[in-house]
Design goal:
The structure holds 2 protein chains of 2 kinds. By secondary structure, chain A is an all-alpha fold. Helix content of chain A is about 75%, strand content about 0%. The longest helix of chain A has 24 residues, at about 285-310. The model of chain A has no long low-confidence stretch (mean pLDDT about 95). The chains are: A mainly alpha, B mainly alpha.
Amino acid sequence: MITIEHVYILTGAMGAAFALLSARDRTNPKRFGNAAFWGLLSASFLFGSELSDFANGVLVIALIAVGGFGLMHKGAAPTTTPEERATSAAAHGNALFAPALAVPAVALVGTLAFRNSGLVDPKQATLIFLALGVLVALAGCYAWLRPPLLAPLEEGRRLIDTIGWATVLPQMLASLGAVFALSGVGGAVGNLATHYLPLGTPLAAAVAYCLGMALFTIVMGNAFAAFPVMTAGIGLPLIVHRFGGDPVLMSAIGMLAGFCGTLMTPMAANFNLVPAALLELPDRYGVIKAQLPTALALLAANTALMAALVYRF
Amino acid sequence: MMWPLLGIAVVIVGFAARINPLLVIAAAAGVTGIAAGLSPVHIVAAFGKAFAANRFVSVVFLVLPVIGILERYGLQERARALIAQLRGATAGRLLLAYFLCRQVAAAVGIPFGGQAQVVRPLLAPMAEGAAEAQVGPLAPAQRFWLRAHAAGCENIGLFFGEDIFVAIGSILLIKGFLEANHIFAEPFALSVWAIPSALLAAAIHGTRLLLIDRKLRRAIPPPEALRASTSPQGGGES
């Protein structure tokens, strides 16, 4: 059976290749910083399941040191000029879309058709078929475009260098969330909310629950972390038990109020910061700023829905 | 009891001051753990354990070699040219079409889309290509503004579609939490209550996306929003 561990080995191998290619990139004044960073990340993927928790933690501290203290610099991976690309685009036509679409297509068909076939771990089927889709697309590219042998890895390094240390932010923030949980941050926030917010009326409780979901999600970067805290602190004791609101409707709309927070926070790095880097925006918060008006309007709309409906069903 | 909240203060100040987020996270984890009485070894181990457990988040970067090699052979240029040939295609309509497709796909549980898989190689260059066909060459700020909106379509479509699908993580989390509190919830009943918000999201964000074309036509400079040093509110809308 193919499991996520196989996908981690593939990802680790890619990271090792990025490290080696970075190390030999003499145009980059900080080439060994880049090599160290991708090498450490590769080690995490290859050996993370075997290492002790503390050893994993030391590895992460090394990653933070290399990425956090400016030891990296965007490399100059060999690629084509804009003119060569325009010529190639005209020559190859719309067939260029085929390998790009093959990745999500394999992920989709594979997940739907083979999730419960016993060939793959059903819990991680989408990621496993994403990795298989990548291999299928790369094989197609080699056969059709006949690029230099190392070109996909050099081009991959070009893109990962545009993201740089932000590559590990989603994992880092999830880890910070784990330390928060271990330290009782959720309970402390819930206490603050219930002690200092005016929650005496049904309307006030509904509004406080929605805004609290959004605010706590902004802090934690994840509505899943906010939901148990706010629902145990305000939702169940006040909206449901004291004022007789509907718990199902409350939870569904409350979670969506939390998602409005996800759209507004740099803590949700994989949705907001990594895309900004990937799209080469000069402003790290560019994606958040584009989403902000929608997020605020939707937070108001969800709060209104909650206030209007939760005590009627 | 309240001391662990110091870590949240570190995060807020650090992000607002635009200090390298990796250092902010490390500081916040240290401050929070120590305030809660954890030993440094315990904090490092907890952090490392979670980092390894969350590696699946980064697996998506496997697509970069495919996207990179296709860009080498002109994928973005082709995407721009294709959309420029399409009559009636505008940046706003294109983004609206993608946003609605993303929302519907998420609502029925189809795993299609992604910032690395679709937005960077296809959607963003197509939006730029459509805009160039509408109004001619774009200023860099307009280009970045369109790209940011392409990323936003992906996120908003996903968030306000996926909760309609009964087997998604958030629905299962809610069901599990309510059951632990002796409230039985049908996943279907939960997903039905995601529909009003999804429709409101389609109306609100769809309207904003259609206004993109008007802004491009009027050559309204994109809001200050996308320049690094200004306030986050920009012109208020868009």
